[in-house]
């Protein structure tokens, strides 16, 4: 397992860089407004602009009107007010890991509010955590654990930002146990499109609180969340059962996995199937992999019903880790993002959800694996479909 975008097809594609044509007066007025508040800003042509406007997914190139780096809630409110005064669209950027570069606006000409200077994380006496939205998942996990062994559910890539991850979902292998990251939010501070700063919770601006848990970018810029936290599980068993088999056998393994996830997998078991195309033609590689949060004996009880329905794996890897080590193994790198290199990728990604009541049919599973093992195997494009199960939550 490694830190990678889900369901992605990698390809090297050229892209056209469009120069944004911001009228001189708009630029001058925006500059003067942001400058009056002493906000650090990169405009086109400044030394930091080219690197600050790079997308994580290099398929996308956008030219923002400017990128502003607020250091406080009030700075964010000022930046939004300045953009309003010159009629510019605004986008927040937290970790910049949007698949389609929405942290850069998803088009040319936005004011980007880059939250990377807002990195406070605090575990409070009631075991809730206050997290500013310039933080990345790895740093949050480290600080929580080092503040009394606390943890929260979230995805595996340490560099993903909490702003986009929490604002739109936040799914990890621990989500069957605890839920999505957005489910943990107890309250949030939000700068609205008119530049006002409000608090949203179940008792204050409750309609906004509902909306930002899934569609935050459409309703404001969240500057800070207060989250529920959990004691980090002491025993985290990372397992992988791997096969390289015919498309027909892969279909039957996948069917057994789907039936198991739906009927008998306990919430302590996070499970996914990673599928690929080995070099030898007409074969499919399939790895049933995941994390069990509990003891070895309980893991054996939980996984045995699945193992009874699939062929003997060609290779098996099962290891028990402490909490932080398990996150590091899943992420494929260290958790402290101030010392790991900021990565990039070039990919096309697509997601498909099937409802628990009507999972993939035998016919659709068969045609999926036939495609992967035949046309998929002869393609020169690297692909890694990843099918995750979130049944029962
Ligand atoms: C390598 C990789 C691995 C991933 N792994 C997982 C995973 O394991 N599980 C999972 O669920 N997802 C995963 N994702 C998807 C990821 O959670 C989303 O792409 C997420 O939106 C990225 O958040 P970000 O803050 O880094 O991105 P950004 O590009 O900064 O923001 C994404 C969107 O959120 C908006 N936004 C950012 N901050 C705020 C804010 N403070 N207030 C309001 N709106 C805001 C932006 O404007 C943009 O529309 C992965 C993505 C990548 C690239």
UniProtKB/TrEMBL annotation:
Its cofactor is FAD. SUPFAM superfamilies: FAD-binding/transporter-associated domain-like. Residues 60-232 form the FAD-binding PCMH-type domain. It comes from the Eukaryota. Pfam families: FAD_binding_4 (PF01565). Residues 1-21 form the signal peptide. The keyword Oxidoreductase applies. Keywords: FAD, Flavoprotein, Oxidoreductase, Signal. InterPro entries: FAD-bd_PCMH, FAD-bd_PCMH-like_sf, FAD-bd_PCMH_sub1, FAD-bd_PCMH_sub2, FAD-linked_Oxidoreductase, Oxid_FAD_bind_N, Oxy_OxRdtase_FAD_BS. PANTHER family: BINDING OXIDOREDUCTASE, PUTATIVE (AFU_ORTHOLOGUE AFUA_1G17690)-RELATED, FAD-BINDING PCMH-TYPE DOMAIN-CONTAINING PROTEIN. Belongs to the oxygen-dependent FAD-linked oxidoreductase family. This is FAD-binding PCMH-type domain-containing protein. It comes from Hohenbuehelia grisea.
